[in-house]
């Protein structure tokens, strides 16, 4: 009886420990989910920046083609040389601006990639922290199973003992009754 009580107590403690571990696991998974949700807008921003960069490069290409066309144009009559020079200057200025813009965009992209890398490292660290916890949970579940099996075995033994003792008790009772009647 005492052994059974001890086993039940042990089972209760194990269940409580398991519950605590499951709660901890749930918290860690929630943290992981939160991290992933934080990561998602960052990835979208990265994609948007890449598209913007592509657009800028296309614009740059277009400007270069235009510049080449201006330079390759046959020399105009003597009166309009200033407009040609002006056109050249007007084309060079946005070109310079466009050359600066991708550079700035690339820097921003680099910063975003670094941030993404940091977040991924944090995610990896979280997963590494989660792994021993999962192993511990598995061990605890196995222990619990073992304990339940032990408890079941003990109950079976008690039942068997009771079944064995029952005829003996009946016999003793009958004998006692018979003895009482004979007196």
Automatic annotation (TrEMBL):
Transmembrane ranges, per UniProt, are 6-39, 46-73, 85-118, 125-150, 156-175
Q: Does the keyword Transmembrane helix apply?
A: yes
Sorted UniProt keywords: Membrane, Transmembrane, Transmembrane helix
Q: What is this protein called?
A: ABC transmembrane type-1 domain-containing protein
Organism expressing this protein natively: Dreissena polymorpha (Zebra mussel)
